[in-house]
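I have been asked to look over a protein record a colleague put together. The record follows directly below this note.
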Amino acid sequence: MAKVLKGIGASRGIALGKVLLLKEEQLVIPNDKIKDVEGEVQKFKQGVQASLKDLENLVEITTAKLGAEKAAIFGAHEEIVQDPAIAQDVEELIKNEQKNAIQAVKQVFDKYHQLFLKMDDPYFKERASDVNDVANRLIKHLLGVNIVDLSTINEEVIIVSDDLTPSQTAQLDKKFVKGFVTNIGGRTSHAAIMARSLELPAVLGLKNITEIVTDGAMISANGTTGEVMIELDTDDIAVIKKNQVEFEKNEALLKTYVNQPTITRDQHKVLVEANIGKPADCEAVLKNGGEGIGLFRSEFLYMENDHFPTEEEQFQAYKEVIDQMHGNLVIIRTLDIGGDKRLSYYQFPSEMNPFLGYRAIRFCLDHPDIFKTQLRALLRASAFGSLGIMFPMIATIEEFNQAKALVEECKAELIAANIKFDQQVQVGMMVEIPAAAVNAKNFAKVADFFSIGTNDLIQYSMAADRMNQSVAYLYQPLNPSLLNLIKMTIDGAHTENKWVGMCGEMAGDQLAIPLLLGMGLDAFSMSATSILKTRSIINNLDYQTAQTLSNQALMLSTSKEIESLVQAFLKKNNL
């Protein structure tokens, strides 16, 4: 009888194969002082050039295998390795403190790694692995250590490692690598994103899997459930193979939903859209049949830069997304910076609780010059398709009106300059603060639309940091208090004939979908890979039945009761 280990399902599918245990050798960082400063600086520069050559090769391989979108990961790595701020920090440590190049690189990259690691947003938090990937490559070149080439694997295996870097993942050949399992990582890590692109099953975050399994042992990894089975016998293997066949049948069925509208059996239509962070993400949205962009996180343009992006730089990025979506609505969130999202070129004030402090719309209203640069870029982009401008972290009507007044100022400036834009561009807001949900009926009189950001709405409603493991039990998407806030938001908008979307993780949660549908949510926005499953659920439901379900759920007292109700409902409907 097999032993089952539980991790994080990061890429759907079921893998069966022999373990290839990948253990990286420990890098020994010398701490001796140097005398030849210029020689050490030159050594660092040579390491950078060698790393760039590797990365250029990876861009070429990944473009051929996965397309330009995924190759952009290594474009970002190229930017990191030759970032002038990083180079300056390294060279200063060499020149001022006589540190050797390896030691200086380690110290500087560790600083940036910690910066990302401390961020609350899981997407940004996972960017720490990119910094590590680049640092390890550079240090290996400086040490003269060989870099493992996974493209040479020539037998069917499941890779088991502490972590798998994006550059390692890009080398994997699906013909031989059937999946991978790691000690660390999560759904938003680049390794997970690459695994989904390669359609390789992946289970991450198993903590000590490398200490449990042995090289060559037969294991199974279920990237859908997050389960890894070890110590398999012949009966276990037979069941796993049967499950693989069933999974492939279901996947083929899901792909039939790509070009279908999202519409219930009793003809109630909604939209299933995607959340993106950069223009290159649109490729996956279109591949999965996304009906628009429910959230474009514009802060990426700021965080991946060494200056506040200019109006022209922003305009080009926004226009690129709008062009790719061929007339489907694109909702772009204005700068959501502060809290855990910091900029290398701007010093935020020190705060006791930055998540409840000077961030998002509060920062933007206090810096109208920065805000208006973005608003002008957004308005200019609106001339090329369907655009919605969305303000984050709105708590009061006054804040929304101030922000909207700046939009009107920008419109007047563009008219005076004879620059085209959509005069009817939609201007809406995130509902992520409980006060906004409670006051939704009044907000709906001034906003064109709402988008519910459940990640923050949950943690603010429950007074529980969602990244704090000690209070993780309070992160309850199906808590009746949260569902009532969502219903209040939807009803408030609909009284003024305004539409409501949701761009938090909850929008793609299979247990939440029937409830949200029944409450009247108009648009569901999620990661691109969740689109088809969500559409398949909605298209096989009746809207009236979902309404009855949501009404029943709102009368219950606990998350567990609601979860049981929905599970029984999905089972009854064969979903």
The first strand starts at residue 3 and ends at 6. The CA atoms of residues 47 and 223 lie 37 Å apart.
